[in-house]
Design brief:
By secondary structure, this protein is an all-alpha fold. It has a domain of 157 residues: MetI-like (MetI-like fold, Orthogonal Bundle). The chain contains 9 helices and no strands. The longest helix is centred in the first third of the chain and has 34 residues.
Amino acid sequence: MLEIVGPYIPLILKGTWVTIAVSLVSLAVACLLGLLGAWAKLSHSKLANTVAGAYTTLVRGVPDLVLMTIIFFGGQIGINSLVEAMGWDIYIEIDAFTAGVVSIGFIYGAYMTETFRGAILAVPKGQIEAAVACGMTRPTIFRRVLGPQMMRFALPSFGNNWLVLLKTTALVSVLGVQELVYNAFSAGRSTREMFTFMLVVCVIYLILTTISTTALRWAEHRYSVGVRRA
């Protein structure tokens, strides 16, 4: 097995780093959209509620691969149509990495919306009212009161979303991103040892998920300090 995989180790490692990069940047986009979506769903604005509800319904009702291809091709067409309408004679091409990150971030932003919304609702309202009574501003309330407590309630669902997001990065190979699965598939096709390279991919993903699970357990312990357990 080592004789087969050995020459392709640099290619596999390069794909692994791309997978990690796609995952982390997509997570940042998803968290940003999730916080905005949670704010919209909890706001008193009917328009914000409607937009956030349509967003989460759309994403959770359409397969990830279908949404990814729609965002990739439709987004590029939309941007160039807008540029043309503005009278600019240029063509903007979105690279596959950016398209993959935006697509995954957009998709998992909907799941993060529900995660953060539920976590915010779990924080006792009395603590928010006490912070307001102390004269804290909204950013200060979020940083000192709401954020730390919200994370404790959000972490179990957040961790599940992250692990699924990490595995979903394999879909960006369809867009041409040379990540782990794309490079392993290329190596397997060249050597006619597809099973061997897919087995290597399985091992690498298991390592990444194990590291992630360990980090998430530490985070849960960190945010549960001082909380009495039954």
